[in-house]
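Input record, target 12 of the design panel.
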């Protein structure tokens, strides 16, 4: 049996994941990357997206992250995320409300922060897609 790797996903508020995984895949700012036990150490920034991992029982798990940093070591992956939530914990109605608010902001004329509004829109869309993929 292959060796597992420790995965920790934390936000400023809480620890979201702290368990062993067979493989970890994450949305790096330069592209998605995967880490197995024994990986060469590296650090990277993260973009908005889903961290996917296979737990030690072989079940695929998903965690939404809205940016942050990842550190890969030969026996551990640490993700320091701006915010994170497991797919099963995503409130679809709350995500849809956030999507509507972001779309309203982008539709308004005048003095708005388009970068911030587009980021909110992207977060809402990805959270909805990830949560709805669990229903398939």
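The sequence produced for target 12 reads:
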């Amino acid at each position: 049996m292959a060796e597992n790797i420790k995965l920790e996903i934390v936000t400023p508020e809480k620890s979201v994941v702290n368990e062993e995984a067979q493989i970890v895949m994450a949305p790096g700012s330069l592209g998605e990357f995967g880490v197995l036990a024994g990986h060469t150490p590296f650090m990277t920034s993260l973009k908005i997206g889903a961290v996917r991992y296979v737990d030690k029982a072989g079940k695929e798990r998903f965690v939404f992250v809205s940016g942050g940093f990842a550190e890969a070591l030969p026996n551990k992956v640490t993700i320091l995320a701006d915010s994170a939530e497991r797919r099963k914990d995503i409130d679809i109605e709350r995500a849809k409300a956030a999507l509507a608010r972001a779309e309203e902001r982008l539709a308004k004329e005048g003095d708005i922060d388009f970068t911030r509004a587009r980021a909110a829109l992207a977060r809402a869309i990805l959270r909805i897609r990830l949560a709805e993929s669990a229903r398939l």
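The mean pLDDT is 92.
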